[in-house]
Amino acid sequence: MKSILLCLSALILLVSSCTTQKTATNINYLENAKDTSVVVNLQPPVVQKGDLLSIKVFSSANGIKPEADAPYNLQETSTAAGSNSATAGFMVNMEGNIEYPQLGPLHVEGLTREELADLIKTKLQGQLTQPSVIVRFLNFKISVLGEVKSPGTFTLPTERVTILEAIGLSGDVTDFGRKNNVMVVRENNGQIEKGIVDLTSSTMFASPYYRLQQNDVVFVESNGKRLQQQQRQETAQQIGLGISIITAIALILNFIK
């Protein structure tokens, strides 16, 4: 009986050591980066279907006749009594167009903010004196999924968002995520494209996916450690159950004797 209990004790110690053993060391951001200057690839975001745009038009006549610009701007809408007004926006339809006052439909899909502002300014040349145009995104959003602490979709007040900032918004990569193989899924002119970014290397700054575009989805894949941990826990539970059964049988046999 003593030999059986000794064997069981040894088995318990073996299982405990296996379940607490770590399989890999976490990789830090820019761990493989070289101490050199890197050119950052900051591609400006482009307008896509479903975007909500704020477009403001001003002219040199505004100081004298503010009403001259009014027909070219959407009016602010009141949300409730005593509350601030909500800024109206232009929704880009499924054809990539917006319906602009006095100008009619404009195809805006694929344009940057600056390109769209120049387009509207050109069309207003004969209607307003020295027009200027300001374009902003009202619903710039990105999604972060996979092995991060707080996955979800984030609507942002700015379109200048990098992949590192997106990871920060999601609470950072978990211990079970791969920092060196982060996928960015992007829609570009109706086509879905995928890119891989290595967050441990300075090469990410030169990637076209370093600066995120509207509706980008960032996916952090698993490094396999979570599955390994679950498998070890399941194995430990099964062995523990077996040990309990063997111990119970041994006690019964000892009692019978």
What does this structure look like?
- Among the domains are: 52-137, wza like fold (2-Layer Sandwich); 140-224, Roll (Outer membrane lipoprotein wza fold like).
- The protein has a 5-stranded mixed sheet, with helices on one face. Strands 4-1-7 form a 3-stranded antiparallel sheet, covered by helices on one side.
- The protein has 257 residues and is an alpha+beta fold.
- The radius of gyration is 30 Å and the shape is elongated.
- Helix 1 (2-20) runs antiparallel to helix 4.
- It has 4 helices and 12 strands.
Describe this protein with a few key phrases.
wza like fold; 3-stranded antiparallel sheet; 5-stranded mixed sheet; Outer membrane lipoprotein wza fold like; 257 residues
Q: If strands are numbered along the chain, what order do they take across the biggest sheet?
A: 9-8-12-10-11
Low-pLDDT stretches: 19-24, 81-86
Using the coordinates above, name the CATH class of the domain at 52-137. Answer: Alpha Beta
- The second-level CATH architecture of the domain at 52-137 is 2-Layer Sandwich
Oligomeric form = single chain
Strand content: 15-25%
Biggest sheet statistics: 5 strands, mixed
What is the name of the CATH topology of the domain at 52-137? Answer: wza like fold
- Average predicted confidence as pLDDT: 80
User: Element order, helices and strands?
Assistant: HEEEEEEHEEEHEEEH
What's the Cα radius of gyration?
30 Å
**What is the CATH superfamily of the domain at 52-137?**
wza like domain
> What is the number of helical segments per DSSP (H or I, 4+ residues)?
4
Share of helical residues = 25-40%
The helix/strand class is: alpha+beta
Give the termini separation.
Answer: 11 Å
